[in-house]
Structure formats: C-alpha cells, structure tokens
Amino acid sequence: MSSRKIVVIGGGAAGAMAAGHAAAEGVEVILIEKMPRIGRKIAISGKGRCNLTNAGDIRDFIKYYPSNGKFLYSSLSQFTNTDVVNFFKRYDVETKVERGGRVFPTKDNSEVIVKALENFLKDNGVKVFLQTPASNVLVDDKKQVHGVQIKSGDIIQSDAVIVATGGASYPGTGSTGDGYDIARELGHHVVTPLPALVPLKTQEQWPKELQGLTLKNVEASLWINDKKQAREFGEMLFTHFGISGPIILTLSRYAAQALSKKQKVAIKINLKPALSFEQLNLRLQRDFQKYINKLFRNSLDDLLPKSIIPTIIKLSGINPDKVVNEFTKEERKKLVSLLQDLPLNIIGTLGLATAIVTSGGVDVKEVNPTTMESRLIKGLFWAGEVLDVDGVTGGYNLQAAFATGYKAGKAAAQYVLAK
Ligand SMILES: Cc1cc2nc3c(=O)[nH]c(=O)nc-3n(C[C@H](O)[C@H](O)[C@H](O)COP(=O)(O)OP(=O)(O)OC[C@H]3O[C@@H](n4cnc5c(N)ncnc54)[C@H](O)[C@@H]3O)c2cc1C
C-alpha cells in the first residue's frame, strides 16, 4: 500500500464506488459518512427495491439526463450499465429487467445492493468512518487539496479528496446539500439546487377528489407563460395535493425551474392522445348515438374511467341531466377540447423533502468530465448527484452516480500515485 491517501466524503452510491475503486489501485482510502450506515438513500430507492440501472443501449443514455447529459459521456462509456450489473453480480446480486428496461435485484430488496457495496469497501481495505460529518476541504495557497476538516474540528490529511455528498433531496438520508457549501467555499459555482422528479401541487381542488386514480396512456404537456415547453406520454396519478406519477415527475424539473422564476406554469392533460380532435369528436358522436336517450352524466362510461366522469361533467359546464341527443355541435366540441386539454394550474412542488433528485449542483463546466477533477483545485474530485446532472426515472440516476464514482475513484488514485 502506498503512503498516498484519499479521503472520500459521502458513502452513497457515488462515494462507495469511488472509494473502493481508488483503494483497488493500491492507495490508502478513508471514506467518511455522516450517517450511522452508508447507502441510506440506496436503501429507500426504487420503493425499497433499488432500480440500480437501466438495460437500454448505453449509447442512448445521454438523452435521459435533461441537463448536461453530455458531461456523462466519458464516465458512462467507461462504467456502463453492463459493468454495474456485472459489478453487483460479483457480490452475488442477481438482477432482473422490468418494464422500461428498469434493472432490479432479483430479490426485490435494495439491502443486497448496500451490503454489496459494504463488502466491496471491506475487500479493498477502505477505512470507513461513520457518523463523521465533513465540514470543509482544506486547500493550500497553490490551490491544491491537503485534507478534510470534520465537524468535530479534527483534520484528516490527504493528497486528494473526492466529494460525493449527494444532492439536497430526502434530507433524512443524510443528503442535506453539504457539498454545495463545500463547493462555494472553494470557489466553485453551484447552479441553484431545485427539486426534480417531484410531485406537483395544483391550484384546482378537483384532483383531490380523484386521489388514488391512475391514468394510463395519457399525455401531459407543460405550459410555461402560456407556451408549450414539453410533453410526456404514459402514466400519471391524482393525489390529495395535485398530481404525480412517472410523466408528471419527468416534467417536474422544468415546472420547478419556471416556478422559481415566478413564471406561470400549467399542465394540460390529454385523456385521449391516440385520437385527433376530429377522431374523438366522431367517437363521441358514435357514443351519443348509442346512448341516444341517456342523460349526459350516464353517457361517458365507454370512454372514461368511472371515477373521473363526474369531474369532467362538472368542468364541462354542461347540464349533467341533459339528454345526449339534445347536445349541440358546439357543446360536443367543447367536451372534446376538455378531454384533450384538461387544464391544471401548477402552484408549487412538494419540495426537496420529497424530490427523488435535485437538479442543479456543482457547475460541470468547472469539472473535467474524463477525470471528475475540479478545474479550479488540484486533487479535488466530484462524483454523483452533487454535480449539476440529473436523470429521469428508470435507473439513470444511480447509473450516473456509480459511473462518476468509478471515474473519480480511478482518476484520484492515478493522481495521487503520480504525485
Ligand atoms: C425515494 C428515492 C428513490 C429513488 N429511487 C431511485 C431508483 O430506483 N433508481 C435510481 O437510479 N435513482 C433513484 N433515486 C435517486 C438516487 O438514489 C440518487 O440519485 C443517488 O443515490 C445519488 O447518489 P450519490 O452517491 O450522489 O448521493 P447519495 O446517495 O445521496 O449519498 C450521499 C452520501 O453523502 C453523505 N453525506 C452528505 N453530506 C456529508 C458530509 N458533510 N459528511 C459526510 N457525509 C456526508 C450522505 O449521508 C449520503 O450517505 C431515488 C432517490 C430517492 C430519494
């Protein structure tokens, strides 16, 4: 073992990968983690099952990171989704692929992933200091790292430091945004951390009446200051405060950014995206023909889930007791518009407390993507969610944390060995 030393701050997905891989190069590595155990966020990931990566083509991954995906090009090509699966296989974790390419441990238990990382650290002789929160990275006047100060005031000297403190979401897991303070103090720019993959609050109260209802195969479009900015197709959910579910979570990062700039944010839901306006109009005509003597409130059963019908009828402003053969062309068209453009005003997100990831973080322009080393300070490396990179759901965030952790670990070891 060399006398060269690396300190890794943060024992999450990125920090554990970095520490083990650096130690495997023959360098002394200390991992400091402020919680009583490493990997608290991994433990709750994927609803306790841990969607560790995605089985899709790695060459397509970049597009699943809405900001700065290109920054990951090098790390994702060196530590791919297959490498992640093979890495855990070496620690007896078998995996399976589910809907949308999501990869989970066959045991449906995230604990096996945390355990594997603990064993990886042990096998490579990483010294793990738990309940040890770091407060600063120490830098000399040549802008070179020489250690880490922990909250107790003690100093751990080192030749390189890898900061892998995660984002600021789900702070109960230990990720409280400490890395952003460390970064600012060292002169790095931090792009404002905001919640991403987060449920949205609506001004309208009617979603509350539908709480628990999941809609499949719908389209949600995001409107900022009355301009359409993005759309997603798939599944969504009504909740007691507004809307959630995969397509809403994906749109939420843009909603959160617009709300932070005090812009007007709306989501419009197309309940029948497979049909054009005309096709849906004809479909309604056919249904109304079939139910010619029925009341409006009893005429939509073939078209919509039962629980949403009273809401649609109320929002249409059309008399629910009107017999359908008395509908005017205008009324039918009004109904078609409502079904394809169901509007919701977004007044907020549920915040960092419940966001799956944090958008924003250490500005990637100041980090070398092939080594994860700071462009401002020698011997300082960044990995994981603390960086200004965030992915959509599907295993992309853990994949990015593992890959950047791997890169940072290897590069930091090379750096100290070359010193
Ligand atoms: C509920 C939930 C479910 C998720 N599910 C998935 C999923 O299924 N698939 C997926 O790809 N992604 C998922 N994610 C996102 C994913 O878990 C994160 O993007 C990923 O864990 C980030 O890894 P990281 O190592 O950068 O940070 P983290 O995993 O957050 O680890 C950071 C570590 O640093 C420690 N730390 C922080 N500050 C200090 C300090 N000052 N000193 C010492 N230690 C410190 C923290 O305690 C923590 O252990 C989920 C997130 C949440 C919240």
Which keywords apply here?
single chain; 419 residues; alpha+beta; FAD/NAD(P)-binding domain; Helicase, Ruva Protein, domain 3; 2 domains; six-stranded antiparallel beta barrel; five-stranded parallel beta sheet; binds flavin-adenine dinucleotide
Q: Provide the structure class.
A: alpha+beta
The CATH architecture designation of the largest domain is 3-Layer(bba) Sandwich
* Through-space gap between termini: 15 Å
Query: What count of structural domains?
Result: 2
The DSSP helix count reads: 12
Give average pLDDT, whole number: 97
* Helical percentage: 25-40%
By DSSP, the count of extended strands is: 19
Give the CATH class of the largest domain: Alpha Beta
Assembly of the depicted chains: single chain
For the sheet with most strands, the description reads: 6 strands, antiparallel, barrel
Spans of at least 5 consecutive residues with low confidence: none
Shape: elongated
Strand content: 15-25%
CATH-defined fold name of the largest domain: FAD/NAD(P)-binding domain
Q: What does this molecule look like?
A:
With 419 residues, the protein is of the alpha+beta class. It has two domains: 5-193 and 360-418, FAD/NAD(P)-binding domain, CATH 3.50.50.60; 199-350, Helicase, Ruva Protein, domain 3, CATH 1.10.8.50. It is 32% helix and 24% strand. It is built from twelve helices and 19 strands. It has helices at 13-24, 40-48, 73-78, 81-89, 111-123, 178-185, 206-209, 246-260, 277-290, 309-316, 329-340, 396-418, and strands at residues 5-9, 28-32, 53-54, 95-97, 102-105, 127-129, 134-139, 145-150, 155-157, 160-163, 190-196, 200-202, 214-224, 227-238, 242-244, 265-270, 342-349, 357-362, 380-382. It has a six-stranded antiparallel β-barrel. Strands 6-2-1-10-19 form a five-stranded parallel β-sheet, with helices on one face. The chain has a three-stranded antiparallel β-sheet with strand order 3-5-4. β1 (5-9), α1 (13-24) and β2 form a beta-alpha-beta unit. α1 (13-24) runs parallel beside α12. The longest helix is centred in the C-terminal third of the chain and has 23 residues, at 396-418. The protein is elongated. The mean pLDDT is 97. Flavin-adenine dinucleotide (FAD) is lined by residues 9-15, 32-35, 40-42, 44-46, 50-51, 133-134, 164-166, 169-170, 173-175, 178, 356-357, 384-385, 395-398, 401.
